[in-house]
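[SOLVED] Need 3D model of a two-part complex

Original post:
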Amino acid sequence: MAPRFSIVTPVHDPPLGLLRACLASIHGQTFRDWELCLVDDGSADPAVRGELRRAAGTDPRVQLVERPVAGGIVAASNAGLEIARGDFVVLVDHDDQLTTDALATVDAALRADPAIDYVYADEDKIADDGTIYDVFHKPDWSPERLRAQNYCTHLSVLRRSLVERVGGFRRGFDGSQDHDLILRVTEQARRINHVPEVLYHWCVNPGSAAGDPDAKPYAREAGRRAVAEHLARLGIDATVEQDGASSHYRVRRVRPAQAPRVSVVIPTAGTARQVWGVTRPLVLGAVRSLLEVTEYPDVEVIVVTDPATPACVTSELAALPVTVLDAVAPFNFSRWCNQGVAASRGEYVVLLNDDTLVEQPDWLDVMISFFAEPDVGVVGARLLYADGTLQHGGILLNEQPLHIFHGFAGDDRGPFGLLKIDREVSAVTGACLATPRRLWDELGGLPEEFAVAFNDLDYCLRVRHSGRRVIWTAHATLYHFESQTRRPDAAEHEIALLYSRWSDELHHDPYGNPNFAPRQAVWLPAERASLRTALPAAWRRVVSRR
Amino acid sequence: VTQGDAEVLRRERDEAIARARELEHELGALRGRVKRLEVMMWRRTARRQRLAAWARRLRRMLPGRS
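Solution:
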């Protein structure tokens, strides 16, 4: 009878101690229905060869293929796949370790849903001296992120029949063969599951990619090609670039020959504020920079002005090539946006706050290009304060909506490059939010019952409920001159409404991780009780009533 | 004020704005660094507390301990 799991481990001259630790971690599994497919890829060290033969000789579940000449990790891994008989393939490197409950935990997840074709888990790194560090608590399935980085990597468990159907590992992708395989498997997987528990210790030793992404530059190039071919298979016209020195990739989608019209809607009260020493109406800077800097070819700008907007501002706006609408009083941000969108003619809508400034010519190209995929419903931008610190890097729902890594330096990469890559999020801020007009109409625009706060969040969550993705891009950056010290201005009834509509979503963000401390936006581990900050008073009142 | 003077004034103003922006960015970089270091310190504390809790549990499990 075929075992549940086939662990495939190609071996090529690992440090002997690490190989023994790896084998011990497999033998120590609490779940027993596995086989180990070892492939010695021409190891020169006789001690390694001896250790492998000893392992195969003492446990009938261990099979050994000996390749006298090293053929590389792809050939060795495929040799392992050839002898695998299990329902699922488990990829384990020759110097890494599984936690003792790894297979049992994955098995439980698979039993809960027989349609799962691919499972990945959280991981950490283990140093020579056994120190564990760099715990990577991952998001649930995030396809855009997988294009930017192989965040799934360890531990990966794949249905063997699907691995065979896609042709196993591909020659020419050595070093990123797992990224390439995961991309091809997930393109066809019925269901993908994430286990939010550390089940894999990735060993850091000299020359390993765990400790130094530059150790294998050929692997980064292979990864880039893997992502490029993945996009080509999906029919997405794009190029892929390596992102500097890291093993991250940037996907640049190509603008179609006939660029669809984009309508930028800016509600304003003509407020003036001091920025970089100058006090001026912010909306004028926003509109002028938008018109002068943006290189997107077909943009219409609609400014919805509050009745209290100073006459000097409205007269200056009237002199610009924009449509100016008088807002319907009283103040309701959602209604004003809806009013602006109703008057627009673009295929795509961008909501833009009046206290923004555009300096990046291709910002709109970057944002709109994501809509080449029909399941993308919203795209949000990277927003910086006047001092260059991060205002918006996506919203995390962690008992309350939070701007992640708010106030961190603009060039901070965030954990595992989080702030430098495009990825799915639960929601983005309405300060700069792009969405297709057809979807806007389908969902009824912004909810007018949220006059001030959470209208963007509600819209994004409705978009996600419609089966579409919300993307935050690190590659469209604008300034957002919002006050850094402003207190939350949500009304209590808005908080109550948010909770009544989206309580489940507020307590489970698929792009966060249950191991994070509640009400924290900076990926802190959950254990430290003293960090459990109090909810703001208005939130506390609402939550206590529930 | 002659036309020439106005241009000089405008240039000086723009230079001052650029310098103000530069200084604010330097301040922002420092603020961001403080935030990052604080989070790193919290993480270290959390790890130490986790280890201490684990050691306490282990001690309780040893024979002769309640």
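Edit: The first helix of chain B runs from residue 3 to 61.
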